[in-house]
Amino acid sequence: MSENILAYSDYKVEHKEEIFGEFNIPKIETRAVKFLGELLKNPYNTIIVGERGIGKSITARITVMKLVFESKKIVFSSDKEMTNLYDNLWNKIVGSGLTEYEDELNKKVKEFILNNHQIPIFNWAGEGSGYCRYFQCRRKERCYFHYSNENYPTIEEILSSLWNISHPCPLKRFILKRLLEQTYTIEYFRNNKYSFLIDNPEKFNKADAQIFNEFIPLLLRLGNVVILMDEEDYNICNKFKNYSSLPKLNFPEPTTEEQLAILTERIKQLPIEVTGKMNRNLKKICETTRNPRQIIIQANTLIMIEKFGYSLPSKNIIQIPESVQTDERRIVLRIMSNFKGWTKVKRIKEALDKQDIIISDRKIGRILKKEGIEHRYNPDSEYLI
Known about the structure:
- The protein is α/β, with parallel strands linked by helices.
- It has helices spanning 11-20, 31-41, 56-69, 83-93, 104-115, 122-125, 155-163, 170-180, 183-191, 206-213, 216-222, 231-237, 241-244, 256-267, 276-288, 292-308, 320-336, 345-354, 361-370; strands spanning 46-49, 74-78, 130-131, 144-145, 195-199, 224-229, 248-250, 342-344, 375-377, 381-384.
- It folds into two domains: 31-250, 3-Layer(aba) Sandwich (Rossmann fold), CATH 3.40.50; 320-385, Orthogonal Bundle (Arc Repressor Mutant, subunit A), CATH 1.10.10.
- A five-stranded parallel β-sheet has the order 2-5-6-1-7, with helices on both faces. A three-stranded antiparallel β-sheet has the order 8-10-9.
- A hairpin with a 3-residue loop joins β9 (375-377) and β10.
- It starts with 10 loop residues before the first helix and ends with a strand.
């Protein structure tokens, strides 16, 4: 297994591997795709809550791909941080500033930014090149902007500089919020029948909820809004007025048949022979678990154990996660027999990777510490074998 497709169980990570790696992640269309598609095609505003790993992110991406093919206009955000959502909105309304758009909206946007005294854009642009001095920015390292004309930068240069900021930018949010309030922005999105699908990021906290709470009523004026999140995030968001005004729906759990299809399509891409016993064990997992992420993790463990010849518990396959710790310990200790003296954790990790076994650096460290093996930093973490 030069590439282990079962090593990834988080679609946000998988999608990155699809773009930068050589993976072709099979995408199974479950009943949740139809459920989400109907909500987006009709004027429903809602929060959909489902546990982590149940398939919210991949369902969202499959649904968006289907609807865009049907010419449905969607602003879709699915990333590790909330910054991505604001950047998507900024792209739709403002653009990078490098292209001369011909549509009326873009011309009005440029005119609005240049002439509106409420937008303190010249706090840092008025003197040409220099560091941003926007008073509400709390960053210690301020952004530096360089322009061709030191006395007066063009609107294209200003927008391009703002567009290239990748970290959370309060100035961009301030401008974006003002633009979303404008009549021509509302007309543009409503006339084109836009929908907003937001897959809540993993790095989500109370501050993110507080900021985005102010954007919800603005987006509701532009089109219908559907937000995907887990129960933990919902408990945070529901304390804010605009979030709590949206009805809550539960994310549809995949059926046993859908679970088997997800697992089967992935295993087909592995150069291994699936034995009858393993096939029965995999089917049992799908019947007793309703979380695709847990199923993929358990399937990866089954294959890893069989490859190394370790036996599984004869009863209660659902207890596999408890046995994983023991089996991972045996595998790590077995790999360590190839080393002598002070050995860096990353070297042990590399040896495991060559065997297509996915165990994190931290997990390796915890296993070795429990074994009481002498440890030091030099400067990386090392163990005396």
